[in-house]
Design brief:
The chain is of the alpha/beta class and 462 residues long. Helix content is 47%, strand content 14%. The protein binds adenosine-5'-triphosphate (ATP) and magnesium ion (MG). Magnesium ion (MG) binds next to helix 7.
């Protein structure tokens, strides 16, 4: 594609010289005869390079440059100045011109200056592209989190990434276990070798052994050729054993041996093969409980959990919610989207049983359905909105799924009212619209007393 250049000069003959020389050198040239006309053309479609005469009736070169730079800071401007006006040229450079040429100039001088400018433009464009790619890649591999819990996780990840220690990641579904595993791999010196993920609960029991360790031709009916297992595919890299808590008991000794000896034996073979792998395992089961019930071998557990990493559920690290919202908006190409305060409050109040995955899915859906870039309570799903401030749903309280004792509720309401009224009983009674003796009765019934004793004159008096 031809490089675009905009030239502006009120002198018709000079304009034609410029146009002719640049066109002949292979550029796509647009010419304007005044600053105003040039700016109109530039506003319609910006140019990476502008060559303008300095002195023109009406809008001069300096004014034009100021407008162009405010529209497109990356555009380079070359000034044409009259012979003997070096101080004016210096002034133009100070104001942001890339370079200047003095009239009269020859063709080579012009083309050299233009070539230099275009070289810079291309280098800058290249840099920008690289930078964008880089942030794209690093951003969506990295773990987002501002909470102390996530900071701790990130610190462990950084510290242990470039070792061969086995890692066991625990956490509820959707907390980011696989993402942590991938981050560890990509921060390690194995990063250019494969990361092979195996979901131990998704593969039928009788196929799992050959999936993991491979098999030889004829090892069992249907084994028509040799097949490498996941461990072999992960040679030099990392194997991620997802849902390891579901690994059948009878396979556990074989996995333990593979981890200890760093060698595997394909089904139907009696010759072990040496393999260089690092293992990262994950489970959303309470693995300690599985240990107690003897459905998971203790020796295997200790072998896997050299470095244990626990990912707390999202409801226990609400500080991460805002950051994750921003991250997922950017990830799904909607940088400008913002949430208002009530909708944020609702999201902070919600329990996120599906954790980060649920949040990401919600954001994706909202971005598709949205009619503007400012999202409010009306945009977010009902179940999330129900956790918002009272006025959101028109209700004062939202009861938990599993039910709630009325007495406890009453106790909480009375305490809250007293707190709001600085433990002034008469004021609290008025607030609850009950007689004062009813309030005192409730306080006695539930044993409600101020957290710290009040000075004599405040307790109970108006
Ligand atoms: N801290 C985080 N920062 C950015 N994205 C995250 C974070 N945690 C989770 N995610 C994203 O949430 C989604 C679910 O994460 P992931 O698949 O790692 O969860 P998981 O714990 O493996 O879930 P499951 O147990 O259901 O397999 C992914 O798209 C992941 O990129
Ligand atoms: Mg997972």
């Amino acid at each position: 594609m031809k490089q675009k250049i905009l030239i502006i000069d009120d002198d018709a003959s000079l304009r034609r010289v410029l146009e002719y020389n640049l066109q002949e050198a292979g550029f796509a040239v647009t010419a304007a005869s005044s600053g105003e006309e040039g700016l109109a053309l530039f506003t319609a479609a910006p140019y990476p390079l502008v060559i303008t005469d300095m002195k023109m009736p009406g809008m001069d070169g300096l004014q034009l440059m100021t407008s162009i730079k405010s529209l497109s800071p990356g555009t380079l401007v070359i000034m044409i100045t009259a012979f003997g006006t070096v101080d004016i040229a210096v002034q133009a450079m100070k104001a942001g011109a890339y370079d200047y040429i003095t009239k009269p100039f020859n063709r080579d001088e012009l083309l050299l200056t233009v070539a230099k400018a275009l070289q810079l433009i291309n280098v800058e464009a290249e840099n920008r592209k690289l930078k964008e790619e880089l942030t794209d890649r690093s951003d969506f591999r990295t773990l987002i989190g501002a909470s102390p819990q996530m900071e701790k996780v990130c610190a462990i990840v950084r510290k242990i990434a470039d070792t061969d220690a086995s890692v066991l990641i625990t956490g509820e579904s959707g907390t980011g276990k696989e993402l942590v595993a991938r981050s560890i791999h990509s921060l390690s010196s194995r990063k250019d070798a494969p990361f092979i993920a195996v979901n131990c609960s998704a593969i039928p029991r009788d196929l799992l052994e050959s999936e993991l360790f491979g098999h030889l031709k004829g090892a069992f009916t249907g084994a028509v050729r040799d097949k490498p297992g996941k461990f072999e595919l992960a040679d030099g890299g990392t194997i991620f054993l997802d849902e390891v808590g579901e690994l059948p008991l009878e396979l556990q000794p074989k996995l333990l041996r593979a981890l200890q000896e760093k060698e595997i034996e394909p089904v139907g073979s009696s010759h072990p093969r040496k393999i260089d792998f690092r293992v990262i395992a994950a489970t959303n089961l309470d693995i300690e409980k599985a240990l107690g019930e003897a459905s998971f071998r203790e020796d295997l557990y200790y072998r896997l959990a050299v470095i244990p990493i626990h990912l707390p559920p999202l409801r226990e690290r609400k500080e991460d919610i805002k950051l994750l919202l921003k991250h997922f908006c950017v990830k799904h190409g909607a940088k400008k989207v913002a949430f208002d305060e009530p909708s944020l409050a609702a999201m902070l109040g919600y329990s996120w049983p599906g954790n980060v995955r649920e949040l990401e899915n919600m954001v994706e859906r909202l971005l598709i359905m949205r009619s503007s870039d400012s999202l409010t309570l009306d945009d977010i799903p009902d179940k999330v909105r129900a956790s918002g401030p009272a006025k959101a749903s028109g209700k004062i309280i939202n009861l938990p799924e599993g039910g709630y004792p009325l007495e406890k509720l009453e106790q909480e309401i009375v305490t809250e009212a007293l707190n709001r009224c600085s433990w002034n009983q008469a004021a609290a009674a008025r607030f609850l619209k009950i007689p004062r003796h009813t309030l005192i009765y409730r306080m006695e019934k539930y044993g409600i007393i101020p957290a710290k004793p009040l000075p004599e004159h405040e307790s109970g008096k108006e």
